[in-house]
Amino acid sequence: MAEAYIVDAVRTPVGKRGGALASMHSADLGAHSLAALMQRTGVDPGAVDDVIMGCCDTIGSQAGDVARTAWLVAGLPDHVPGVTIDRQCGSSQQAVHFAAQGVMSGTQDLVVAGGLQNMSAIPISAAMLVADQYGFTTPFAESPGWRARYGDVEVSQFNSAEMIAEKWDCSREEMERYALASHQRAKQAIAEGRFTNEIAPVQLADGVFDTDQCPRDTSLEKMAGLDPLAPGGRITAGVASQICDGSAAILLASEQAVKDHNLTPRARIHHLSVRGDDPIWMLTGPINATKHALAKTGMSIDDIDLFECNEAFASVVLAWMKETGAPHEKVNVNGGGIALGHPIGATGARLMTTMLNELERTGGRFGLQTMCEGGGQANVTIIERL
Fold this sequence. Notes:
Residues 5-256 form the Thiolase N-terminal domain. Keywords: Acyltransferase, Transferase. By secondary structure, the chain is of the alpha+beta class. It has helices at 26-41, 66-73, 91-104, 126-131, 144-150, 157-167, 172-191, 220-224, 255-260, 285-297, 314-324, 337-340, 347-362; strands at residues 5-11, 15-16, 50-54, 82-85, 110-118, 202-204, 207-209, 244-253, 267-276, 306-309, 366-373, 377-385. The chain has 13 helices and twelve strands. It is globular and about 60 Å long.
């Protein structure tokens, strides 16, 4: 099968809720990363076969195939199409998969993958609220077929995070220590300039925005004072990912395109897969998806130099590490969603951008990325640095 190469990857700095990017139209937010990617690679944008971007809650400024709109807003050629996909939190990681598959199939040569999300403007699950204007219900759970299969159990990421914490014996203190480490790692990465190469600064009316806003000056004492999200529960806002805004874009190319456009690839796609799990548990997907990916490739945990496992909640990553044996010193080494935020439609591409740069910084060869997704799903991508 043909190879799919990562030529370059770029992202915006992540803006906290109500922060630097809050007033930016979603199409302009996506356009910023797309324009920066094209400028950095020097590729003729007219040679791009397709633009695939992840985005959830595609209403308001994110409606109407925002991937296509973002490409046009960036001033890029009309004849290049775009498509917006929704695999919940894994949307832009799946965008990378679809782009790579197009290249590996031999039907496409240059494909842009990425994602965008303005959670300040369009709150998480906003589409569901529009569907049911009377409250925070889950419209799909009103399906008679769904109820016949799963009953009237509430489907909630918060319930799932609590269930995982209980099953894998993740104490509140253990989760808070993990969350504190995420903030400390992110702040160290920012201080050392580890994100500089991957960030395309955004020119705003009041200056240039070039640094992730979400990492906090926190402590175990501060987190211990937070109220749990459910009475008697272990999960608090301190051990959950942050609501935020951002976008990211990645250029994938075939071997022929690399030659034709005189490109120097930074990595190759070594493996990609996606698996489903129990939708009520929802956030356990990365465990079996990772085991499946390693079995398919004949690799072991020890063969992987860096891991990005999305920090939707601390319990998700802690349970995943306990089940897979991935060592914390190789996992989310520059912080994760708890510290850097989780702009849901963009996170997959953001994680891959960060993982690629960290492999280059440390000299690692293989990086594995996975993340929990709504509906009990999880993507796994393994890339090899070149």
